[in-house]
Write a structure and sequence with these properties.
Layout (H helix, E strand, L loop, with lengths): L5 E4 L5 H12 L3 E6 L4 H14 L3 E5 L5 H11 L4 E4 L14 H29 L2 E6 L12 H20 L5 E8 L5 H4 L1 H9 L3 H9 L11 H12 L10 E4 L7
Parallel strand pairs: 1-2, 1-4, 2-3, 4-5, 5-6, 6-7
This protein binds nicotinamide-adenine-dinucleotide.
The site of nicotinamide-adenine-dinucleotide has 27 residues, from helix 1, helix 4 and helix 6.
Length: 256
């Protein structure tokens, strides 16, 4: 059980982050939810999760595109036994047409945020004598697709950063690993479906099977619960010697 541990999950008012937060809470951890929005419903989400799992859940606003706010999130939480770096955005365009502001935002939110939160969290974990860092990378941390230059660069970057974090903590009771999901049906992916339908002139079912899940041999989306379950496993005692590596949850994508 993760009872007595505090887990901070960045970008967790939606999608994978929310799913991971739920599974960590189900396993007994107190949870800090985060996003940049700070709406009433974000705080309500925290109340509902606390009631559902009988743990403490707080919502703390921080914009992961700002290094200072990343570090402030860890400080405000007051404890950080488990850090899940999940916040992420996507933009799809050819390199020669890729908006510079989008490139900068993706590198900041999908990659640099993990540097800042990890830098702030490691001293806290060392003081507590235990720590688990789980970075949500992607199949795009191990393979590439055209038109996703910033995303693929950031995700390969986070896999490299995971390895360095693991080496710097190797002799301590701290581990750092990356989960590499294939396609998971979240708002981020749902938003891509209408565009893909238009581009390929296909209906929803066909575009999902033949375009989106083209490289996912299982032909099924992974679920946020499955990503959460993998994170809980990485926080368990059985995973004590698992550090500096990636776990793919991708229906066979990277086996192709
Ligand atoms: P999502 O859009 O549903 O959720 C993204 C989360 O990040 C939201 O909670 C959002 O509030 C938060 N966020 C965005 N910008 C932020 C900022 N500046 N500061 C703080 N929070 C911010 O997307 P998702 O699919 O759940 O993606 C979550 C992570 O999983 C991302 O890192 C993504 O790259 C990765 N991933 C997703 C898939 C997939 O198929 N959905 C596959 C592989 C990896």
């Amino acid at each position: 059980s993760l009872s007595g541990k505090t887990a901070i999950v960045t970008g967790s008012n939606s999608g994978i982050g929310l799913g991971v937060a739920h599974e960590l809470a189900r396993a007994g951890a107190d949870v800090v939810l985060n996003s940049f929005t700070d709406r009433d419903e974000d705080h309500k989400l925290a109340e509902e999760m606390a009631a559902q799992h009988g743990v403490k859940v707080r919502y703390i606003k921080a914009d992961m595109s700002s290094g200072e706010e990343c570090r402030a999130l860890i400080e405000k939480a007051g404890a950080c036994d488990i850090l899940v770096n999940n916040a992420g955005i996507q933009h799809v365009a050819r390199i020669d047409e890729f908006p510079v502001a989008k490139w900068d935002a993706i590198i900041a939110i999908n990659l640099s945020s993990a540097f800042h939160t990890t830098a702030a969290a490691l001293p806290v974990m060392r003081k507590a004598g235990w720590g688990r860092i789980v970075n949500i990378a992607s199949a795009h941390g191990l393979t590439a697709s055209p038109f996703k230059s910033a995303y693929v660069a950031a995700k390969h970057g986070i896999v490299g950063f995971t390895k360095v974090t693991a080496l710097e903590t190797a002799e301590e009771p701290i581990t750092c690993n990356a989960i590499c999901p294939g396609y998971v049906l979240t708002p981020l992916v749902e938003a891509q479906i209408p565009d893909q339908m238009k581009t390929h002139n296909m209906d929803r079912e066909t575009v999902i099977r033949e375009v989106m899940l083209d490289r996912q041999p299982s032909k099924e989306f992974a679920t946020v619960e499955e990503i959460g379950g993998t994170a809980v496993f990485l926080c368990s005692d059985a995973a004590k010697q698992i550090t500096g590596t990636t776990i793919s949850v991708d229906g066979g994508w990277t086996a192709l």
